[in-house]
Specification:
Number of helices: 1
Largest sheet: 8 strands, antiparallel, barrel
Helix content: 10-25%
Low-confidence stretches: 1-15
Structural class: mainly beta
Mean pLDDT: 86
Number of strands: 10
Strand order of the largest sheet: 1-2-3-4-5-8-9-10
Strand content: over 45%
Oligomer: single chain
């Protein structure tokens, strides 16, 4: 039993540390987990450095599908209200939908982004980098 738990923890840590993807906007990296949310860093298509917050994805490496999320950037934005995350707030944020290609790590995905409360429509394709050398 302990061995199974240790292996599960090791696999989860390995997946977190190794998950990064290439997109047209640059590298997307699985940075950390906060509560039940996975936190990815990425460059928004408008060039702003941003974080993607995906509730319910933390620790999930074998049952991925479509996930509602939100993004927030530390840049001037046009949203009528500020959104806060990790002690910072911004008016540059929006809704997102993350759609993995397959349920198991490693996998690629499509990310749809919306501004403020608008439906996510701007797409980013992210290709898995697992097993490729770090740059």
């Amino acid at each position: 039993m302990r061995l199974a738990l240790a292996l599960a923890a090791l696999t989860a840590t390995q997946a977190l540390a190794d998950e990064s993807w290439d997109s047209d906007a640059g590298r997307i990296v699985y940075q950390t987990e906060v509560g039940d949310a996975a936190i990815f860093s990425f460059t928004h298509p408008d060039g702003a450095e941003a974080r993607l917050v995906i509730p319910g994805l933390a620790g999930n490496y074998a049952n991925r599908g479509t996930h509602d999320a939100y993004w927030i950037a530390q840049a001037p934005g046009s949203c009528g209200a500020s959104l806060g995350f990790d002690g910072q707030s911004s008016t540059h944020w929006g809704r997102a939908t993350l759609v993995f290609d397959k349920p198991d790590f490693p996998t690629s995905f499509t990310l749809l982004l919306g501004d403020c409360l608008d439906a996510p429509t701007t797409g980013l394709r992210a290709e898995n980098r697992f097993g490729l050398p770090a740059e």
